[in-house]
């Protein structure tokens, strides 16, 4: 623990970088997956191909993807952008499926009645479908969040700094304390982000507390 | 584009297709780590998942534990265990097993939970023992989801087994890690392509396996007593 107090600024700096490299792909992935998932849920014939493409993207291992991106998107090999882009790809691949499931879970009679009461298609999507799909979307975002926070550390192998750097550094110096602090830091970030998501869910969707099914217009 | 050309040259170089550091032996090492880890995880998580799914006990604990294991970074666990126990198969098996247990466990218990309660009640009413209910009704009906859990575990393990090379082991990760170390990016790219192809091939095999498991469900309907 004396190592931690001696290197507090270094660890804090890595923690903030780690947080940044995790949150960016999660947010970007969510924003991109939402319309794709909505589209897939409304066009059953395209649903299979879209979700299948997501599944294939997700089978690409992270370390290889980090190093395959530079020649494709023209970044440098040690650019943190590679990690952000790769993790965004995974986030989209995972979340498109849960977004499609979420929007499909909205009862058609609710859609019809909202159209009948004068909602435009855009209003209906934003004011009716999105809130009702919320609980399933939240579950998807939570899975993506935990796995993204953990995967950022792999970037240390290609020289992108994060709490994962404590693993490579601790390994080179035969120093388990440093590795332990890295693992603890990552688990804490994952738990805090997950807790924030649960809290946001409670605040934004007070009608869906744990275990209770989504309220539909009966 | 030169990296892609370089990678093409790397693949067509016959030197890279033989010997201890050749593609076939690296591929076998990679498959070996994967099979060992998935085997160990399945041996732990499938019985546990079936027990949780059958009895309904400790479900909350299993969900919480899986979530906590998912948050553990493989690279951290791997380097930590290597420093504690030395280089060898133990660290990579431990690190990858931690990664593989949550999906296998989730597949097993959610598979059993997906079985219609009425079917289970009917099996009990016909006089089946708990063991028969489990092995003759629940497991056959849950098989596609159980296989699905093993499938996602396998894919994650194949992808992540690349980090074995970082702690001095073999596998396809060697090309990636060594390539990065000496800035030989064509080699790194070639290693990456090999891992992606292997992952896609294994995923394809699992799709077939899941289809077979789904088909087998219609055959294993319990006979009338």
Structural commentary:
The complex is a heterodimer of chains A (218) and B (225). Chain A is mostly helical and 218 residues long. Chain A has helices at 2-6, 8-42, 44-59, 62-73, 80-104, 108-116, 121-151, 165-172, 176-204. In chain A, helix 2 runs antiparallel to helix 3, helix 2 packs parallel to helix 5 and helix 6 crosses helix 7. With 225 residues, chain B is mainly α. Chain B contains 9 helices and no strands. Chain B has helices at residues 2-12, 23-55, 59-71, 74-85, 89-113, 117-125, 130-160, 173-181, 185-219. The N and C termini of chain B lie far apart (68 Å). The mean pLDDT of chain B is 86. Helices cover 79% and strands 0% of the residues of chain B. In chain B, helix 1 crosses helix 9, helix 2 (23-55) packs antiparallel against helix 7 and helix 8 runs antiparallel to helix 9 (185-219). Chain A binds chain B through residues 55-56, 58-65, 67-68, 70-71, 77, 146-147, 149-151, 153-154, 156-159, 163-164, 166-168, 170-171, 174-176, 179-180, 182-183, 186-187, 190-191, 194, and chain B through 1, 3-4, 67-68, 70-77, 79-80, 82-84, 155, 158-160, 162-163, 166-167, 173, 176-177, 179-180, 183, 185, 188-189, 191-193, 195-196, 199-200, 203.
